Amino acid sequence: MDRWKNRVAVVTGASAGIGWAIAQALLKSGMIVVGLARRVEKIEQQKATLAANLASRLHAYKCDVNDERDIVAAFKWIDSELKGADVLVNNAGVLKDTLLTAPGNTDKIKDVINTNITGLILCAREAYQSMKRRQVDGHIVNMNSVVGHSVPIGVDTLSTYNVYPATKYAVTAITETLRIELLNDNSKVKVTSISPGAVRTEIFNDPDLIASNIPFLVPEDIANSVVHVISTPKHVEIKELTIKPLGERF
């Protein structure tokens, strides 16, 4: 991680769970971290709990990845104040009850699609433009899921979140398409998809899911994986990393 010291990492959805764990891990690795979140006050509250040497390198910026104007403004601020982004961790995501045949859930469906797909694409676009302008050897990490590779048919506790796997399948395709685009652009920027199994965070707040015997990872497992994929030698690109808790059946 030496080559990343004092360079800038942007983490979306950084106010809690996996995002906050990733932000801390990157700070401890010597990076400057910009945490993007709608609930930016939560990042500020947690910043107060950090050691002074870590807190001084954490910047909280209010950004709703559903809003293109927010995304563009955030990266403009990063370019202006911190010279630009070197690493992007596209972590922001939502999981909502989106049964495909249920009436009246259009807003929920749009929110899941806009956050998990459109927001991810726009953040990657803006981050890459920042990296390209400075010709840096950056890294874009897209937070995917095991359900972005196989729909868990028959897993009752996930049976109502039906748009979510579709959005994660999209992340699988988007990540590979982006990697090819960057190759065609003769870019030094790496692209990685990280696909965890179930992680114990507030996104899994369904009582039935919590009460089930599904094994869970913890946010720090994913944060450690982010550090691993960006710390590989310059000639090594981890294209896809799948992480499952021991005993997971899907």
From TrEMBL:
Keywords: Oxidoreductase
PROSITE patterns: ADH_SHORT (PS00061)
Keyword Endoplasmic reticulum set for record: no
Example of a GO MF term: oxidoreductase activity, acting on the CH-OH group of donors, NAD or NADP as acceptor
Domain of life: Eukaryota
InterPro entries hit by this protein: NAD(P)-bd_dom_sf (IPR036291), Sc_DH/Rdtase_CS (IPR020904), SDR_fam (IPR002347)
Keyword DNA damage recorded: no
Transmembrane parts of this sequence: none
Family note: Belongs to the short-chain dehydrogenases/reductases (SDR) family.
UniProt protein name: Dehydrogenase
